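Input (structure):
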């Protein structure tokens, strides 16, 4: 018995789908819980969408962006919260239906109609999630003011092309007067008549000021939308909502005497506003597909925080939306996603820890400055494809700003490098509209221009092509890129190979990210190998290698201590993760996928070896390597046999056997860091470099140990911090100290007993200073406190070489010095101990150790280094 909607209702639903998908409705997160479900209309047995919604107790809101058969649904929040905060009525209903259907199948060969109803719902519901927390995406943006320049070369270009925009001579990324070899090199294409006509780029950002004189004629309202406030136009509303307008000006500012010009100044720009507030996965997914039949390029200068601590990638819905754009956007040629690599290099961040820049579907763009140098903010990684020009060494990007006729001279960062690349791609698509998303990437790999050839970061790939973690395959040269595109032979469709996961010593991870098993990561690290055979290539219709994915499961108490690299059969090494000292997360790598473009064109046949290292190999922080697998992406042998990749519904590669699938649990709303929180304030002024490798080889002994106090923190005995790090040595040392103390006590007790008869007590009313007693050997008592040497000698027996008095005087001196230090019956009293003006060491009640002087006199706090300041015990 099948459950289906009446044909007329089905027809109405199908007719309604485009309307639902085209105009997103306003969200009411305060009063409703939202979910996304994937409905399979062809499941057998299967239930209709309305039946599924009724069984779950939800209302269908709309299609989830452009994802077919994915639906945004909602239900009212309960008025009263239950004791079980993790309980969710919708998810509980689904689990109940799932259990009932499973039990009936196991116990009754002929299920009752009610249970068939449950089975039909379960089989038709492929995916259900309430993982729609709001997140604040991070702009990768701004810097400080521009310097003077020589306008001669720029002025000649302006005169030749009739450019009247007053700021054009300052746009060095278009015409560089000082370093002519370092600019986007677009003017020859303008001479050829290529200006981006007919191409639409979408600025997925914080809004776009369509009232700007520079942008109003090139603004595309039909493919624009505000996903933060769910309005039709992406109006910038907040004081710092200027990033999207600036990036749009780089691409498509018109030649109109207002400010400056864009690289593709006759192309169109749409604005999709997502960065001005929290956003859910379903809206972010819709944003990345918005207008995807008309829009060619999505410019994305944002991502997780660039703080050297974050590791975040797109969720399931967002990943599906990106793949949907790749498979179906632009009539099947694929949407082009351009992502800025990130501005966190100064914090030790690397773009392989960002799942957007780390994706095979992204053209990841880093930055170089007007001298062609690497700015210290620009993040390196094995996913970097190209670099484009941006701020650094004292110059910035001059472009359109928010306002009717406003300019900015303070734009920059990798978020300005990415739109420069977008402008070049717009010119290329005007010249060759049939280019697919992979053709755009191939043209980057094969036509990027090498700069700074003496930079030690350059390495040759297996096919002899230079590659750098800082520069990718080189800088994007518009003229070279577009002329190559005009003669380009389109690549064959995509193919891929996914290997079986390698589990080390029974390593597994369950749905709740609980690790078990795995191989301990010792001093030498852990290596493992995956072999690729020629037959694997034939079986998967695989011809030429492009991207490589490496997915790892690593359990570690300090994630930033882990380093990961992969070595190809040809001996080419990709550094996937280098140490990040700020990353102290205890969550490890729960199936994190790295990506490298460094093996592009290489023969994949042979052994691929991964090495996982721990750069802080102590018992205080350690981990285990549970498992890994690889995915190879490339072109197909036979295009007629090629298929399009689809994102799998579940990824359970390292799940233990017989673990049932679970539904994503409900999560709380969160807001991430403000967009400019981690941008270096001087990244436009600081001088760049071309002499440092991105990932220098630093001995682990030279790197400060995360989680271990520095010598300044441990005080006068820095070696003790290393001693305590090992329990065995700690107890050995403790035993030695105890034995020494017992022996010394017995020794001095016997000596004191032997000399006690000759020891004379001082009269009770006689006040004699400690130094005076020590000076009774042959001279008069000295006045004032004794030098530091006296404190030093209090911890040991008085030297016979220093004093030549008899034994009685030496013993008396030693005893009085000890007494002066406070070793007496009142040692723990709070009263101040005072001896003839000498400052005496004691513990204050607040836990701070201090030296105190006479009452009424200052009592300065003494630090272990002697530099002043307080010294508190941990």
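Output (sequence):
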């Amino acid at each position: 018995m099948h459950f289906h909607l009446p044909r007329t209702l089905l027809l109405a639903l199908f007719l309604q789908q485009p309307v639902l998908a085209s105009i997103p409705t306003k969200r009411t997160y305060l009063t409703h819980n939202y979910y996304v479900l994937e409905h399979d209309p062809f499941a057998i047995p299967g239930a209709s969408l309305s039946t599924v919604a009724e069984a779950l107790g939800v209302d269908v809101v709309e299609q989830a962006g452009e994802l077919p058969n994915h639906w945004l649904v909602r239900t009212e929040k309960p008025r009263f919260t239950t004791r079980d905060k993790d309980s969710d009525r919708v998810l509980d209903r689904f689990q109940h239906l799932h259990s009932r259907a499973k039990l009936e199948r196991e116990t009754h060969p002929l299920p009752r109609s009610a249970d068939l109803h449950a089975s039909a719902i379960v089989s038709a519901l492929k995916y259900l999630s309430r993982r729609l927390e709001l997140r604040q995406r991070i702009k990768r943006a701004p810097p400080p003011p521009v310097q003077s320049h020589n306008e001669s070369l720029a002025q000649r270009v302006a005169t030749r092309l009739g450019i009247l925009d007053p700021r054009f001579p300052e746009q060095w990324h278009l015409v560089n007067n000082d370093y002519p070899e370092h600019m986007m090199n677009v003017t020859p294409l303008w001479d050829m008549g290529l200006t981006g006509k007919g191409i639409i780029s979408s600025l997925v950002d914080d809004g776009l000021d369509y009232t700007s004189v520079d942008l109003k004629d090139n603004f595309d309202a039909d493919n624009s939308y505000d996903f933060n406030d769910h309005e039709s136009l992406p109006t910038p509303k907040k004081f710092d909502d200027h990033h999207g307008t600036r990036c749009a000006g780089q691409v498509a500012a018109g030649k109109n005497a207002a400010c400056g010009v864009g690289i593709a100044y006759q192309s169109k720009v749409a604005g999709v506003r997502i960065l001005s507030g929290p956003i859910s996965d379903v809206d972010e997914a819709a944003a990345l597909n918005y207008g995807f039949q008309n829009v060619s390029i999505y410019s994305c200068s944002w991502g997780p925080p660039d703080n050297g601590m974050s590791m975040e990638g797109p969720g399931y819905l967002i990943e599906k939306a990106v793949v949907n754009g790749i498979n179906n956007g632009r009539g099947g040629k694929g949407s082009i996603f351009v992502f800025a690599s990130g501005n966190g290099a100064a914090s030790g961040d690397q773009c392989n820890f960002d799942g957007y820049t780390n994706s095979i579907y992204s053209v990841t763009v880093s930055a170089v400055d007007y001298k062609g140098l690497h700015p210290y903010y620009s993040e390196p990684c094995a996913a970097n494809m190209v670099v484009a020009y941006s701020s650094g060494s004292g110059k910035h990007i001059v472009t359109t700003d928010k306002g009717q006729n406003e300019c900015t001279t303070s734009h920059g960062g990798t978020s300005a490098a990415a739109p420069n690349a977008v402008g070049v791609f717009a010119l290329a698509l005007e010249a060759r509209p049939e280019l697919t998303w992979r053709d755009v990437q191939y043209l980057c790999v094969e036509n990027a221009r090498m700069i700074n050839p003496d930079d030690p970061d350059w390495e040759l790939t297996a096919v002899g092509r230079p590659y750098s973690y800082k520069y990718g395959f080189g800088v994007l040269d518009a003229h070279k890129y577009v002329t190559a595109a005009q003669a380009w032979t389109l690549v064959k469709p995509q193919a891929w190979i996914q290997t079986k996961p390698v589990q080390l010593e029974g390593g597994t991870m369950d749905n709740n990210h609980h690790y078990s098993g795995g191989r301990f990561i010792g001093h030498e690290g852990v290596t493992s190998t995956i072999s690729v055979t020629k037959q694997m290539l034939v079986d998967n219709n695989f011809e030429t290698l492009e991207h490589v994915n490496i997915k790892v499961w690593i359990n570690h108490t300090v994630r930033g201590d882990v380093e990961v690299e992969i070595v190809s059969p040809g001996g080419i090494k990709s550094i996937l993760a280098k140490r990040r000292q700020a990353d102290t997360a205890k969550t490890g790598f729960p199936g994190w996928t790295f990506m490298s473009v460094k093996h592009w064109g290489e023969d994949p046949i042979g052994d691929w070896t991964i090495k996982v290292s721990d750069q802080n190999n102590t018992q205080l922080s350690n981990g285990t390597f549970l498992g890994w697998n690889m995915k190879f992406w490339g072109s197909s042998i036979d295009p007629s046999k090629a298929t399009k990749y689809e994102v799998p519904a579940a990824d359970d590669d390292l799940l233990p056997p017989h673990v049932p699938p679970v539904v994503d649990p409900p999560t709380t709303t969160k807001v991430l860091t403000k967009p400019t929180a981690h941008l270096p304030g001087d990244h436009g002024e600081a001088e760049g470099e071309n002499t440092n490798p991105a990932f220098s080889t630093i001995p682990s002994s030279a790197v400060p140990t995360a989680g271990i106090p520095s010598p300044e923190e441990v005080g006068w005995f820095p070696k003790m911090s290393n001693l305590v790090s090992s329990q065995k040595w700690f107890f050995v040392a403790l035993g030695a100290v105890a034995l020494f103390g017992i022996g010394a006590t017995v020794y001095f007790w016997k000596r004191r007993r032997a000399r006690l008869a000759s020891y004379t007590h001082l009269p009770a009313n006689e006040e004699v200073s400690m130094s005076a007693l020590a000076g009774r050997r042959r001279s008069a008592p000295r006045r004032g406190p004794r030098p530091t040497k006296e404190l030093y000698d209090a911890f040991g027996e008085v030297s016979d070489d220093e004093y030549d008095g008899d034994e009685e005087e030496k013993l008396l001196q030693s005893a009085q010095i000890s007494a002066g230090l406070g070793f007496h019956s009142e040692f723990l009293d709070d009263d101040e101990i005072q001896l003839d003006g000498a400052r005496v060491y004691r513990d204050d009640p607040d836990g701070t150790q201090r030296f105190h002087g006479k009452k009424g006199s200052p009592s300065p706090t003494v630090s272990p280094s002697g530099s002043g300041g307080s010294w508190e015990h941990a």
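Notes: The chain has four domains: 7-129, 151-491, 496-641, 727-826. Residues 496-641 form a domain with the Jelly Rolls fold (CATH 2.60.120.260).
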